[in-house]
Amino acid sequence: MTIETRQTKPFDDQKPGTSGLRKKVPHFQQENYVENFVQSIFDVAPKEPSKTLILGGDGRFFNREVIGRVIAMAAANDCEHVVVGQGGILSTPAASNLIRKRGAFGGIILSASHNPGGPNEDFGIKFNTANGGPAPESVTGAIFERTKAISAYRIDPDISVDLETLGETDLGDLIVEVVDPVADYAALMEELFDFGKIRDLFESGFTMAFDAMHAVTGPYAHEIFEKRLCAPEGTVRNGTPKEDFGGHHPDPNLVHAKTLYNDMMRSDGPDFGAASDGDGDRNLIIGKHIYVTPSDSLAVLAANAKHAKAYADGLKGIARSMPTSAAADRVAEAMGLPIYETPTGWKFFGNLLDEGYVTICGEESAGTGADHVREKDGLWAVLLWLAILASRKQSVRGILEEHWQQFGRNYYARHDFEEVEKPVAERFMAELTAMLPQLGGKAAEGFQVRSATDFAYKDPVDGSVTEHQGIRIRFEDGSRAVFRLSGTGTVGATLRVYLERFAPGPDGLDRDVGEMLDPLIEAVDALVGYRRAIGRMEPDVVT
Ligand code: G1P
Ligand code: ZN
């Protein structure tokens, strides 16, 4: 081994966002940009309980290059064992599983999730800690501080690893082990779900379309759905991962998975449609003639989890991010389960899962997961839906409608205003925050404000407090609007406005979502003037 210490100068923009450091590829290609961030991770992360590192990414452009550099740096930074997915591939939940299974001190995951890939598109580096989850604020904060002070990084420039051949290579002080990215993950899914029952469902003629969006879940989905669960070949679409995701956004929503959506709206279409994102942690669920919002999906999965082997004895509790609709709260209340409301970002679920406070968690942004890993998990959500469908022998629509009858319906939408100039967006949020004390009790268009607050979260496990996690305006009729700025965008600022109205049922459960929310939007705009402040009347994306 030849360890070199190379001089470098700090960058001032390496603050990890909602899920790691995310920038355009050319930004990452600046000299030492990757090395500085990776060295800062190695400097900050304690090598406990072992000196093993898990490494992989979603296969996007620049993935392989960075995998090579991280291995060369790991060799010079006191790692003893690097477990890397073949070809540099690991889905985010598969990486989380490997960290836990191998007792690693952490994992480096290369992904920009659902953002596009390619030479001028997005890239990201994320560090997960020994519990398998995204590094908590204390660690990402320390990494950021380190990036601002760094003056040198260490590397073994002679190391190059064949990422295609499975098995171990002994490089002296470091063992590099190339593993099948799918094997351990698929085995975990077989532990959680009764594959025999889901196989029977497919054998009965039930049809599914799964869109892997040319992203990382392709190989996982082929193996699990088509091989192990015997769904017919062709069930998995766009199942070959590409560095640029075929030129599309690997974002499983109704805009980017439009073909799937259109097929699901046809009478002769499949019975069940699903998709996952770039790195395999998000999910989209569509039934025949019906889209299931992620907030509703969380509620339905929680209410029906007992239909799956792993959750037959019931759940410990439910957690949702603050902007996620309160549909899951109604389930928790009815089932007598604790419910936790956390800031946006999966890392806030980590302590709740580690301590056994909750079993299942979800975010409105198509993220659902449970205590089997410490990341949201796209294929897991699809499998839990399949387990429920196999057991209840009803359609997705039937299940959803019965759910609303029982618990009421939370009409919900998220409006994204993208690429707003950063100073404009920040000024609006500051003005809104200043306005909060005056909003209480005010009314517009028939909606009266009950409370208006700047959301802060106190972690019930470690007592840490995270402030300024979104502005929440609650109305007397149970409606709600939330404003926050995205922490994952790479250009300008994205303002997210989350809107929600509750219908207790049994009437009013089949209204048009837009019709239900329009009056609320007008009321909120009359109160806070957000459209004028940012100079936009219509959102770029509605989910
Ligand atoms: C977005 C989602 C959030 C999710 C994150 C990472 O973050 O809103 O729920 O955890 O991506 O997938 P945002 O851009 O809103 O900060
Ligand atoms: Zn993702």
What's the short story on this structure?
With 543 residues, this protein is of the alpha/beta class. It is built from 17 helices and 27 strands. The radius of gyration is 23 Å and the shape is globular.
Give an account of the 3D structure:
The chain is an alpha/beta fold. It folds into three domains: 4-179, Alpha-D-Glucose-1,6-Bisphosphate, Chain A, domain 3, CATH 3.40.120.10; 185-407, Alpha-D-Glucose-1,6-Bisphosphate, Chain A, domain 3 (3-Layer(aba) Sandwich); 409-542, TATA-Binding Protein (2-Layer Sandwich), CATH 3.30.310.50. Helix content is 33%, strand content 25%. It contains 17 helices and 27 strands. It has a seven-stranded mixed β-sheet, with helices on both faces. It has a seven-stranded antiparallel β-sheet with strand order 20-21-24-25-26-19-27. A hairpin with a 3-residue loop joins strand 17 and strand 18 (367-370). Helix 2 (33-44) crosses helix 5, helix 7 (195-203) crosses helix 13 and helix 10 packs parallel to helix 11 (327-335). The mean pLDDT is 97. The structure holds 1-O-phosphono-alpha-D-glucopyranose (G1P) and zinc ion (ZN). Residues 113-114, 277-279, 281-282 line the site of zinc ion.
